[in-house]
Amino acid sequence: MYKVSSQQKQYNTFTLSDGSSNSQIEVVPERGGIVTSWKINNQEVFYLDTERFAHPELSVRGGNPILFPLCGNLPNDTYSIDGKTHQIKQHGFARELPWQATSQSENGEASLTVELTSNGPTKAVYPFDFHLSFTYALRGNTLEIRQEYKNLSSTPMPFSAGFHPYFLCSDKNQIAVDIPATRYEDNRTKESFDFDGKFNFDQDEIDSVFGKLSSRSTSVTDHDRKLKIAIDYDDFYTYLVFWTVKGKDFYCLEPWSATRNSLNTKEYLTVLEPNASCHAVVKITANFF
Fold first, then answer.
1. Mean pLDDT rounded to a whole number for the chain
2. What DSSP designation does 174 have?
3. N or C, fewer C-beta in 10 Å, the chain?
4. H or E segment at 221?
5. HSE-up of 81 (CA within 13 Å, CB side)?
6. Residue 47: exposed, middle, or buried by beta-carbon count in 10 A (0-12, 13-18, 19+)?
7. Which of 220, 251, 257 has the alpha carbon at shortest distance from 61?
8. How many CB atoms are closer than 10 A to CB 164?
């Protein structure tokens, strides 16, 4: 029923499959530890810009990129710790670095664990030693991502983390969005608005940040593709971001542990003591109807 295999393409690509539901995902550890594809009955769930993916110098636009050690961007890409200023790019570096595949299992699920450890280039922009371990587990139509964040430094380590999944969608006017919040902030204007479940997709870009979440689940129903995406997340996650660009066949619904600039504001920032670790879980369920 469950199977894990690998194939050398441009990158070594792992395929996790559940034969009973005809569901499979592809994971590319060395390209940011990312899930690039998820097919159910040969229908693709994720969007992927394959041209960008083929060029290692470009960030991936598609699949499910990992955000660490920050979500979003910082003013002038700058933050301060203990009076010292550092610079780091939007969404951090985890989505750009090679991860290592360390274990896999076909026992009760198809799963693959990928890991990332701090190194010279990461410490140049983020002065901490860390170890990340993510397990992708596929069962039926649900992808579960179990995460461990560990501080290997001798000082407390602040961070935020999240995911940036790109869902394939050709007609955004036929999607119904269920986000457990009544207001959002437009990241472009910094204005706050009431939310009635609808977006104006005639805009060139939508970048809406939702806080004060009233439940641990969110969903989008795509009536054109007859596909419902449900995302469940634990208490580690405090924000959801809905982002899309006009003329592109995707929308993103992103669970974040903290909002932009938290490395400076400290709002909802996670701080791990030396040798401490924390865990988080995100589940994405895709059902065609």
1. 97
2. G
3. C
4. strand 217-222
5. 17
6. buried
7. 251
8. 24
Residues 6+ apart with CB under 8 A from 175: 169, 220, 221, 222, 223, 224, 251
CA distance 76 to 72: 12
Residues found in the chain: 289
Here the tokens at position 259 are: 């909002």
Class of residue 200 by CB neighbours under 10 A (exposed 0-12, middle 13-18, buried 19+)? exposed
Alpha-carbon distance of 141 to 250, in angstroms, equals 20
Break the chain down into helix, strand, coil percent, rounded to 5: 10, 50, 40
CB 95 within 8 A of CB 60: yes
Determine the Cα–Cα distance for residues 46 and 44; give it in Å rounded to an integer.
6
> Which mean pLDDT values do the consecutive 10-residue runs of the chain (289 residues) have?
97 98 98 98 97 91 98 97 95 97 98 98 98 98 98 98 98 97 95 94 97 98 98 98 98 97 96 98 98
Give the gyration radius of the chain's Cα atoms: 18
Between CA 232 and CA 220 the distance in angstroms is 12
End-to-end CA, the chain: 23
Q: pLDDT per residue over 182-238, tens digit each?
A: 999 999 999 999 999 999 999 999 999 999 999 999 999 999 999 999 999 999 999
Residues 6 or more apart from 8 whose CB is under 8 A from it? none
Residue with tokens 């109807």: 289
Q: Provide the 3-class DSSP secondary structure of residue 227.
A: strand
What's the confidence (pLDDT) of residue 245?
Answer: 97
